[in-house]
Amino acid sequence: MSLKINELCVNCDVCEPVCPNQAITQGADIYVIDPARCTQCVGHFDEPQCVVVCPVECIDPDPAYPESEPQLLAKLLRLQSAAHPDPAGDAPAVAPAASAGSDNAAPT
Ligand code: SF4
Ligand code: SF4
Predict the structure, then answer these.
(1) Mutation test residue for ligand 2: of 3, 4, 12, 25, the one with most atoms within 8 Å of CB
(2) What is the pLDDT tens value at each position of the chain, 108 positions in all?
(3) Are the C-beta atoms of 33 and 3 separated by less than 8 Å?
(4) Which ligand ends up closest to the CA of 62?
(5) Residue 11: closest CA among 26, 33, 23
(6) Domains of the chain from N-terminus onward
C-alpha cells in the first residue's frame, strides 16, 4: 500500500531525501508521494522511512492503493529494473577494438 501525505504537512523537506525510491516530491502546496514509486520501504527498511522522520506524523496509508508485501516487492523490482535496464543479459556485446600494432611501447 502506498502512503499518502495529508494536509498537516509543514513542508519541512526531511522526508524527501530519506525515500529509497525517490517517491516523494514537493507538490503545489505540500509534499506528495508517487504511489507508483512508494513501496512502504519494503525491500529497503523495516519501517517506512518517511513516517519515521516526519515531525508532524502526517503520512498515512493510502487506501486507494491496497498492495500486499509481495506486490510491493514486485513494484520495487520493477523500479530497479527500470533504473538498471541491463540486468545481466546473455551476451555482453562488448567488442574491444583490437589494436593493429604488435608492439606498443618500444622506443628505439
Ligand atoms: Fe518512500 Fe518509503 Fe515513504 Fe514510500 S514509505 S514514500 S518508499 S520513504
Ligand atoms: Fe511534510 Fe512530513 Fe515530509 Fe516534512 S516530513 S515535508 S511534514 S510529509
Answers:
(1) 12
(2) 899 999 999 999 999 999 999 999 999 999 999 999 999 999 999 999 999 999 999 999 999 999 999 999 999 999 999 988 865 555 444 444 444 444 444 444
(3) yes
(4) 1
(5) 26
(6) 3-83 (3.30.70.20)
How far is the C-alpha of 79 from the C-alpha of 74, rounded, in Å? 9
Give dist(CA 35, CA 8) in Å, integer: 19
Which of 2, 22, 58, 62 has most ligand 2 atoms within 8 Å of its beta carbon, as the pocket-test mutant?
A: 58
Close Cβ partners of 49 (under 8 Å, ≥ 6 residues apart): 15, 18, 19, 20, 41
Write down the pTM of the prediction.
0.80
Q: Which atom of ligand 1 is nearest to the CA of 41?
A: 2
